[in-house]
Structures are given as structure tokens and as C-alpha cells.
Known about the structure:
Elements: H1 8-17, H2 22-40, E1 43-46, H3 48-63, E2 74-78, H4 105-112, E3 116-121, E4 133-134, E5 138-139, E6 141-142, E7 145-149, H5 155-162, E8 168-173, H6 179-185, E9 188-191, E10 218-223, H7 226-236, E11 264-267, H8 278-293, E12 297-299, H9 308-326, H10 332-340, H11 349-356, H12 361-384, E13 387-391, E14 410-413, E15 416-419, H13 425-431, E16 437-444, E17 450-456, H14 463-476
Parallel strand pairs: 2-3, 2-8, 11-12, 11-13
Antiparallel strand pairs: 1-3, 4-5, 6-7, 8-10, 9-10, 9-16, 13-17, 14-15, 16-17
EC number: 3.5.1.4
Enzyme class: hydrolase
Protein name: Amidase
Amino acid sequence: MEWSFRTAGELTAALRAGEVTSAELTDEAIARIERDDKAVNAICVPDFDRARAAARGADRARARGEVRPLLGIPVTVKESYDMAGLPTTWGMPQYRDHVPAEDAVQVSRLKAAGAVVLGKTNVPLGLQDIQSFNEIYGTTNNPWDHGRTSGGSSGGSAAALASGFGALSIGSDLAGSLRTPAHFCGVYAHKPTLGLAATRGMVAPPAAPLPVDLDLAVVGPMARTARDLTLLLDVMAGPDPLTHGKAYDLRLPPARHERLGDFRVLVVDGHPLVPTGSAVRAGVDRVADALVDGGARVERHSRLLPDLAEAATLYMQLLISGSVARFPIGSDEQLRARVAALRADDESLDAARLRAMVFSHHDWMEAAGRRELHRHGWRQLFAEFDAVVCPVTPTPAFPHDHEPDPMRRRIDIDGVGHPYFDQLVWAGLATMPGLPATAVPAGRSPEGLPVGVQLIGPMFEDRTPLRLAELLEREIGGFRAPPG
């Protein structure tokens, strides 16, 4: 029997029943990677010897009667997480020999839960792209079409899942880095509420793995089913034991509803600054129809929805000012000269990004204050609705584009070119206020490419969009393996 595309829940049941061993699951996963990953290039740092040893240890533990949530389940880890003895480079050539001495807190939690780590998955340079390619490890291809991107920055993890390389993976999300690859590859991902899962050890080299509270960025689970997302989130969630973990334990509230017919959902498929492509709009409509058929209350408009144009601009300001602080672009004098050349009335997202590159602390504090107003607006909306359904990006996976200057790249939306980074507006809708968002498959484009949508939920009520994702999976189907 082939196990590679079984869910983590199914594998756990089979392990408990004695139908298979973890060693057998691990050997099968490794054989599949060795056979198929030459074309996909998802696993950039294999760790097969230690995986086989961990699998044998898991089988012994099960024989002793141990019960752990991921005992014996093969998984992968995004390259950006520290794993003792393996390189963590973030795709940056100058750090190709950077080998951390200890595991990231989330890798430790995976191992404590009994997971068998097969290796690390590919990322873009500095995690700064919507594709996954770098000089060290090369390009990760979309399993559905090798001429297209798998997404970024957790593109290697999404491609690995779609290819059957392990049942689960962990990634991170600052600009849709969990949700976009899931949408492009036809799998599931969950961006948790900001601060829900500890991030220590998911840090760009050569910085020390300190227990800092990040702005915008989160770590989260990826899987081939919604239920597996919840299983993995329960392993990942909780404060860092070095900081908040000394004072409290986490207990997420249950989902607001258990039945699809009890959900109140706002469906949004249009953005004032970027058009939504027809294939993605069809995916949103498919989900909306399933909600209506299931008895949910569905609305297409609400006065409570925060201003989308202002939200996109605010997100770009916070995103770019933080990114440039970590990864400087050009000299300050050059950037200020470019900003000074902008027209005063230029309110494009390109202009917002450029101005954010020279933000002062005062500018950032002002933006952070406006973010609090948006958060309050979302609280009011979620008193009326339980979730918001909207696109992840305007298009399915696009062809590889390795133009060195990302500002010169264009994204094709139904035959019309748009600035490359404008496609981030939908990812920013949840990221800017720190809301949880679950990416779910929603069918295929006319070309046969996966199309997903995201389900945005109330802050620290992560089980609500996850439960809705599980119910929708029953209605419209979920993951489907790529041909071949």
C-alpha cells in the first residue's frame, strides 16, 4: 500500500493499528523524494539518516505504549528554521556555511510531538519573494506545472506537500508566505493570529535566535487537509517558554460554530487597487455557492469592512519599512532622492512602498496607530460575521520570473500587466491587523492550475476559520495530487 498522500490523521490511525511502521513510512517518503524531487526541487537540505533513526525511535516509543500527537509522522521544515547540525541560510550565499547549534522552538515542538523530520524545504533569497529560488539551492517548481512558481516564501514546503514528500510541513508568513504557496500548489495552510506561536529560531543569519516578538510575521502549519492543520497548530501554538511561557499556558477558544449552516460569512472578491483575475474570482464564487448551499448566511457587502485601499497602503508601509530595516536597499541618500521625485498626489502602491523605505520612527508610529483603528474595525465586523472569504492573490501560479530587480517585474492579470508586488494586497488584509487566515483549495483554473481562497477569522479565534475550512472541504473537496 502507498502511504505518501495519506493524511497525518490516517497515518496515525494506521500506525496505532499496526498496519505500518514509522520506519516504513519514512523509507517510502525518502524513496519518493529521491525519485521525484529532481523535477520539483522542494527538499533543499535532506536529513535522511537522522530521519530514519528518528523513525526507528518512534516505533520503539509506540511499542512502549507512548502516545504523542505526531508520533512517527514524516514531516518537513522550511529552510529558515534553525535545525541543529543543518545549514540555515535563508538562501543567502554568504551564509551557506551557517550551521546553528540548536533547534528552533518549533522544531523542538515537532520532535517532542514525535514527528520524523525528513529535511528542510527551499525558500527565496532572504524570504523576500513570491517565488522560491536562490543561488545556493536553485529553483523550486510548481508540481502542477514545472514552468511556474510554487510560491514563496514557503514554496518548498507547499511543493513538498503537493508531491507527497511528508504529511505536514511548517512555514512562516509575513506577506502571504504560507497562504500563497498553498493557493499555488493546491494544499492547505494557516497563518495564525500574530503572536500565537513562538518564533524563536526562525531568524535570518547571523542573528542570534532570541525570543523576540515580531511585527507582522508569524510561523504556522501546512498540510493536505484542514483537520491536519488543526492537529499541527495545536503542536505549534503557545508562548515561548523563555518569555510569556513562564506566566501562562495557551488555551484557544473553540470554533464559534460546528455546523456550516450556523456560520455568518462576508465574501469579498474585488479590491479597489488591483483587479481579481477570472480564475480566482471563480474560486471565490465556488466557495460562496457551497456556503449558501450549506445554509450559511452569506453577504457580499458590509459597511463594517475596513477600507481596503487604506489597509493595503498601511500594510505596504509597515511591511516595507520593516523589511528595509533588516535588508537595506541602496543608500539612504539615493532612496530619499527617489522619494523626493514622486508627485505629491501619487498614491499608488509603488509610491507607498518607496516612501516606506525611508520611514522615520515617527512615521512608523503613526502607521502603527492607524493599524489600531483598523483592528478596532475588524472587531466590529466580527461581531456581525464569523469569517471573511477572499482571494489569496489575484491569479493562480504564474510563470517563473527571475528578473533581478523585482520592481521591474509585472504580474499578468487576465492579460493586463500590473506591478509585481501589488498582488500582496490580499495577503496584507489579514497580516496588517494580525488576524488568523486559513488558505483552502477552491478548485482549478481553466488551465488546470490550483486555485485557493483564504478564510479570515477573528483575532485569537483561530479554530473558527479552521473549522470552516474543514466543513468546506466536505462540500467542495480539498487536496488533489498533481498528475503523474
